[in-house]
C-alpha cells in the first residue's frame, strides 16, 4: 500500500500540462489565432485610423455572443458579455500600428502605407506588437465564451485605438466608457516585451511605466552676420547652454533614489554657415513616475531656459517660450492586491521560471488612464516576453543586443506571446469572475 501511495502522489498533487483544460483549449485554437495574427500584422493602421482593424475585432466578438459597440472614442470597440450577477472585469488590447518601414523579412510583413498626422507619407508596421495583443484578446474572448458555466459577472473587452500617441484611452473615457457601459472594478492588460525571453511573464507592482511629456522650447536671440557675433545674441550658443544645464535637473535636483529622464531629441537652428539665426528650437521628451517629480522637472525646464537667457543678456521680450504639449501620457500604476494575486496565480500555473519580477521602465502606456479615471479600480498591465529563444541565446540574454519595441526589425515569437497571454488572461479572468 505504501508503495502504491508513493506511486500515486505525483498524480494526486500535480496536474499534467496535457490535462489542463484552458491550456489544451488555447493550444487547439492556435492555428486559427495565428491566421488572425498574420492578417493583423500584414494590415496595420495608424492611430485613430484603425477602421478595418476595429471591424475585424468587432466581428470576432459578435460571433461569440458579445454585445458590441463600435466607434467608441472614434475607432474603439467595446464588447460586453453579461453572465449573471457578479463583478465587472475589463480586458484591454490596443490596435494601432506605427509609422515604421518593416524590415523583419517575415513572409507576411506589412506593405501598408499611410499618412502621419502631419500629412507625411509613411510605411506602417506593428512594430510594438499590438497585433499580438489583439489576437490574444480574441483568444481570451473565445475561452471565456466557451466557459460561461465557470464564471459569473460581466466581462468587458476594450479594443483601444491610438495608444501610440497616448490619446486612445482618454478618447474612450471621454466618450462615456464608464457611463455607457458597465464600469469595471478590475482592468487587466498585457504588453509584449522585447527584453524578456518568449513565453516568460513579467510583473511589477506599483509604478510600472512612466509619465511621458513632450516639451518644445523656442530659444530666441538676435540674429546677424557670423563674422560679427558681438552684434548678436546667438540662440545656438544659448540653446546649447540650456541643453547642458537641463541635465542637472536629474543629476543634481532629483532625489538620487527617484528616477527621471530629460532627453533633448531635436535641436534645430540656422540655415547657412555665416548667418547667426534669430532662434533655435529644442524638442524634449521628459519621463518620470510620480506627479511631484513630473512637476519639478517641468518647472525646472522653464526656470533653466529663462535663467540661461537672462545670463546671456537676451532682452526681456525675447525670453524662451516653453510649451508642454497636450499629448501627455500619465504613469502606469499596478495596484495591490491585484498585482500580487496575479503573480501568485501565474506562478502556480506556469511555474516560477516563467514568472519574474520586472523593474519599472521609462516607456509610457495610456493604459494608466483606466485606473486614474477612478482610483477605486484595481489595475494591472503585465509583460509577456517575445524574444525568440535562438535570438535570446545568441545575444547571451543581453537585451541591448536585440531589436527593441518600435524597431523595424522587431519580430516577436508570436506563437509564444499569443499562447502565453491568452492562457494568462483567461486564467486571470476566471479567477476574477469566479463563481
Rg on CA atoms, Å:
25 Å
Q: Biggest sheet: strands, sense, closure?
A: 8 strands, mixed
List the helices and strands in order.
HHHEEEEEHEHHEEEEEHEEEHEEHEHEHH
The third-level CATH topology of the largest domain is: Aminopeptidase
User: Mind telling me the CATH class of the largest domain?
Assistant: Alpha Beta
Strand runs, count: 18
Instruction: Supply the number of helical segments.
Output: 12
Q: From the helix content, strand content and strand pairing, which structural class follows?
A: alpha+beta
- Uncertain residue ranges: 1-18
Distance between the termini: 38 Å
Q: What is the CATH superfamily classification of the largest domain?
A: Zn peptidases
How many distinct domains?
A: 2
Q: What is the helical fraction, as a range of percent?
A: 25-40%
Strand content: 15-25%
Q: Major sheet: order of its strands?
A: 1-2-6-3-7-18-8-17
| Shape assignment | elongated
CATH architecture of the largest domain: 3-Layer(aba) Sandwich
Cofactor: Mn(2+)
Protein name: Amidohydrolase
InterPro entries: Amidohydrolase, Bact_exopeptidase_dim_dom, Peptidase_M20, Peptidase_M20_dimer
GO molecular function: metal ion binding; N-acetyldiaminopimelate deacetylase activity
Brief overview, please?
This protein has 12 helices and 18 strands. The chain is α+β, with helices and mostly antiparallel strands and 435 residues long. It has 2 domains: 16-208 and 331-432, Aminopeptidase; 211-324, Alpha-Beta Plaits (2-Layer Sandwich).
Amino acid at each position: 500500500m505504501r508503495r502504491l501511495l508513493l506511486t500515486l502522489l505525483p498524480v494526486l498533487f500535480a496536474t499534467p500540462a496535457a490535462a489542463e483544460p484552458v491550456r489544451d483549449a488555447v493550444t487547439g485554437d492556435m492555428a486559427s489565432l495565428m491566421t488572425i495574427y498574420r492578417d493583423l500584422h500584414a494590415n496595420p493602421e495608424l492611430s485613430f485610423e484603425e477602421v478595418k482593424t476595429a471591424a475585424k475585432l468587432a466581428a470576432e466578438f459578435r460571433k461569440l455572443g458579445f454585445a458590441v459597440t463600435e466607434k467608441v472614442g472614434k475607432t474603439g470597440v467595446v464588447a460586453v458579455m453579461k453572465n449573471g450577477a457578479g463583478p465587472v472585469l475589463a480586458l484591454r488590447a490596443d490596435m494601432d500600428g506605427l509609422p515604421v518601414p518593416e524590415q523583419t523579412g517575415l513572409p507576411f510583413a506589412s506593405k501598408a502605407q499611410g499618412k502621419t498626422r502631419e500629412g507625411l507619407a509613411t510605411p506602417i508596421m506593428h512594430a510594438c506588437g499590438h497585433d499580438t495583443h489583439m489576437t490574444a484578446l480574441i483568444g481570451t474572448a473565445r475561452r471565456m465564451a466557451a466557459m460561461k458555466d465557470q464564471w459569473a459577472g460581466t466581462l468587458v473587452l476594450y479594443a483601444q485605438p491610438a495608444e501610440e500617441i497616448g490619446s486612445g484611452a482618454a478618447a474612450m473615457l471621454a466618450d462615456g466608457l464608464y457611463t455607457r457601459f458597465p464600469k469595471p472594478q478590475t482592468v487587466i492588460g498585457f504588453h509584449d516585451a522585447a527584453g524578456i525571453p518568449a513565453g516568460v511573464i513579467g510583473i511589477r507592482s506599483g509604478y510600472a511605466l512612466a509619465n511621458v511629456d513632450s516639451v518644445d522650447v523656442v530659444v530666441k536671440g538676435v540674429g546677424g552676420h557670423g563674422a560679427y557675433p558681438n552684434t548678436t545674441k546667438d540662440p545656438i550658443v544659448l540653446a546649447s547652454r540650456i541643453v547642458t544645464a537641463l541635465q542637472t535637473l536629474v543629476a543634481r535636483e532629483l532625489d538620487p533614489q527617484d528616477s527621471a529622464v530629460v532627453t533633448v531629441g531635436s535641436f534645430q537652428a540656422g540655415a547657412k554657415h555665416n548667418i547667426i539665426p534669430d532662434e533655435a528650437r529644442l524638442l524634449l521628451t521628459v519621463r518620470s513616475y510620480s506627479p511631484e517629480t513630473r512637476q519639478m522637472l517641468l518647472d525646472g525646464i522653464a526656470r533653466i531656459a529663462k535663467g540661461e537667457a537672462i545670463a546671456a543678456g537676451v532682452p526681456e521680450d525675447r525670453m524662451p517660450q516653453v510649451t508642454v504639449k497636450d499629448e501627455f501620457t500619465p504613469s502606469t500604476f499596478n495596484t495591490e492586491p491585484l498585482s500580487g494575486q496575479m503573480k501568485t496565480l501565474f506562478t502556480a500555473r506556469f511555474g516560477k521560471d516563467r514568472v519574474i519580477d520586472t523593474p519599472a521602465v521609462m516607456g509610457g502606456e495610456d493604459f494608466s488612464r483606466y485606473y486614474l479615471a477612478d482610483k477605486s479600480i484595481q489595475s494591472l498591465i503585465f509583460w509577456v516576453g517575445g524574444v525568440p529563444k535562438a535570438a535570446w541565446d545568441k545575444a547571451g540574454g543581453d537585451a541591448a543586443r536585440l531589436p527593441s519595441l518600435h524597431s523595424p526589425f522587431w519580430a516577436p515569437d508570436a506563437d509564444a506571446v499569443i499562447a502565453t497571454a491568452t492562457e494568462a488572461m483567461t486564467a486571470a479572468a476566471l479567477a476574477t469572475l469566479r463563481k
